Amino acid sequence: MKIAFLASECAPYLKTGGLGDVVQALPEALSKLPKVEVSVFLPYYSRIKYSGQWKTDFLGYFDVQLAWRREYVGIFRLKTRKKKLQVYFLDNEQYFKRGGTYGEYDDAERFAYFSKAVLELLPQIDFFPDIIHANDWHTALVPVYLDTQYRSLPGYGSIKTVFSIHNIEFQGKYDRNILESVFGIYPSQESILEFDGCLNLMKGAIECAN
């Protein structure tokens, strides 16, 4: 079985709370099971990239389409001896060279970019997982994008998705006006995300995770 973990943080590289602990411990435990391969995908924040603590290999780059914009995606992989547990960092300094991790004015765009970029990355590294495990609102668009934009493409059709809620207080709530301009999702698909008069990314993941 191949499992992909997507999250906004993971100890020891960057941690602000319990999410970072889980994304460190659970992939580690699963990778020790027979015939299980795990890959963890994280944003390449400047706090990780320039810390000097983590040695990585640059694997290449590509562009991802997010609504009306095309954005650079750099692919870095942690140097490790663990063949069954790989850690990938997605690089884009426009989104991730910031002083903090969360609370930026463009968080919706930053994490929509990350979610879309990971899905586009899979064929680049020849890793189509059996299961994608998304965590909290930052990666909640992954099951949504998978169902609405990728299911018909080679390699994506049989992927299952799991969505874990670590902190339900933060759900990724945004104005409905950014559905197309930021997320690149058609108005006909708005009902997947719409809840209580706004877009709710966590609600979308709950609907689409299978």
Structural overview:
With 210 residues, the protein is an alpha/beta fold. Helix content is 28%, strand content 27%. The chain contains six helices and ten strands. It has helices spanning 18-31, 46-49, 93-96, 107-124, 141-150, 201-208; strands at 2-6, 37-43, 56-66, 69-78, 85-91, 131-135, 160-164, 173-174, 194-195, 198-200. The strands form two sheets. It has a seven-stranded mixed sheet, with helices on both faces. It has a three-stranded antiparallel sheet with strand order 8-10-9. β4 (69-78) and β5 form a beta hairpin. α4 (107-124) crosses α5 (141-150) and α5 (141-150) crosses α6. The protein is globular, with a radius of gyration of 16 Å. The model has no long low-confidence stretch (mean pLDDT 97).
Task: Set out the fold topology.
Elements: E1 2-6, H1 18-31, E2 37-43, H2 46-49, E3 56-66, E4 69-78, E5 85-91, H3 93-96, H4 107-124, E6 131-135, H5 141-150, E7 160-164, E8 173-174, E9 194-195, E10 198-200, H6 201-208
Parallel strand pairs: 1-2, 1-6, 2-5, 6-7
Antiparallel strand pairs: 3-4, 4-5, 8-10, 9-10
